[in-house]
Design a protein that fits this description.
By secondary structure, the chain is mainly beta. It contains one helix and 16 strands. The model has no long low-confidence stretch (mean pLDDT 87).
Length: 185
């Protein structure tokens, strides 16, 4: 059991027999009352995102999620398929459970798959990933007094805003937390 004060982003716990992972944690205390903790959490089995409220001092059952480095192979109608590069064992994760993470996947990419009780539940993406620029408009010279951006479509189909100097064929680094351009690679 862990105290709810120890819940932070990325911490996994069990509530009512369901595994959850914390997406956002917020602590508030008003006057002389007890502190309140609001955690925006995602159910790892259904994919539902809910807000759970606790008072300071409550406890939840912690769970151990095992990370395993796997390679992304392909996506079919319902599942995304990953392969262990050592044993060549393949596991499927429901694409509906991946939510926004699915748009960052590229064939052959290695990432961490999270398991609970030998069952693959979700993936853990790196904070920054590199992609090639597939389509973008040419930049205009002299239009750089302020931070000016243009739309670009990346090799995985993701559409982001990039600076004017980025051209087709360049590689760019994207922040997977907010889908924003970080730098040219």
């Amino acid at each position: 059991m862990i105290n709810v004060n120890q819940l932070r982003n990325g911490v996994a716990f069990e509530s009512d027999g369901q595994p959850f992972i914390v997406l956002k944690y917020e602590f508030t205390k008003m006057g002389r009352g007890t502190g309140n903790i609001k955690a925006k959490v995602r159910n790892l089995e259904t994919g539902a995102v809910v807000t759970k409220s606790y008072t300071t001092g409550n406890k939840v059952q912690d769970i151990k999620l095992n990370k395993k480095k796997m390679q992304y192979l392909y996506r079919d109608k319902e599942n995304s398929v990953f392969m262990d590069p050592v044993s060549f064992e393949q596991v499927e994760v429901k694409t509906s459970l991946l939510h926004d993470q699915a748009k960052y996947l590229l064939d052959g990419m290695e990432l961490d798959v999270l398991f609970w009780d030998e069952r693959a539940l979700t993936i853990e993406l790196p904070v920054k990933l590199d992609y090639g620029v597939k389509e973008t408009d040419p930049g205009e010279k002299g239009n750089s007094a302020a931070k000016v951006t243009k739309p670009a479509i990346l090799s995985n189909g993701l559409q982001v805003k990039v600076p004017l100097f980025v051209n087709i064929g360049d590689k760019v680094r994207i922040d997977t937390r907010n889908s924003e351009y970080v730098e040219r690679v």
